[in-house]
Amino acid sequence: MATLTQDMKDMIGAQLNYLATADENGNPQVGPKGTMRVFDDHHLIYNEETGKQAWHNLQYSKKAAVATVDYKAHKGFRFEGTVEFHHDDKIFEDAQAFAKAHHLPAAISAVLINVDRIYKLDAGPNAGDLIEG
Q1: What is the pLDDT of residue 87?
Q2: What share of the chain in percent tops pLDDT 70?
Q3: 79 versus 127: which is more confidently predicted?
Q4: pLDDT of amino acid 132
Q5: CA atoms lying within 13 Å on the CB side of residue 52
Q6: Buried b or exposed e, range 66-101, using 16+ CB within 10 angstroms
Q7: Burial class (CB in 10 A: 0-12, 13-18, 19+), 113
Q8: Which of 79, 87, 100 is nearest to 37 (CA)?
Q9: DSSP 108
Q10: In this predicted structure, what is the pLDDT of residue 126?
Q11: Strand partners of residue 68
Q12: Among 25, 32, 96, 128, whose CB has the most other CB atoms within 10 angstroms?
């Protein structure tokens, strides 16, 4: 399992993050996840609210990639890993509290992403380099 640095955590908290998945035919899907946040040093978490394409794809493959970029700094990261779904435990209760505190729809599930690999998304020749994993 890869470890998130403080710089990575700060960027996730400050930027709009995008979740990428693929369906059973390999068709890509990407979309913003405004509830994406750091869970701990090895996990990201977001509230699944719609139950549409990304949800379907994650049910099938259990694989996710999250991209976050600071456009002005031309720096970013891609986090890849597998997901766990939480529906009736403390993690889910905390996700529901997060939604309520931020005036968001109730979560269908709290989706925990186990970060296995981290890549650079910086501009220049090191773009796409594996940092850890």
Answers
A1: 94
A2: 100
A3: 79
A4: 82
A5: 7
A6: bbbbbeeeebbbbbbbebebbeeeebbebbeebbee
A7: buried
A8: 79
A9: S
A10: 87
A11: 77
A12: 96
Contacts with 93 (C-beta within 8 Å, 6 or more apart), sequence order: none
Selection from 71, 3, 64 nearest residue 38 by Cα: 3
Radius of gyration from C-alpha coordinates of the chain:
14
Mean pLDDT of 104-132: 93
Residue 75's closest CA among 31, 30, 15, 1? 15
pTM of the full predicted structure? Answer: 0.94
Write out the E strands in the chain: 17-22, 28-33, 37-40, 43-48, 63-70, 75-86, 109-120, 130-132
Per-residue pLDDT band at 133 (split at 50, 70, 90): confident
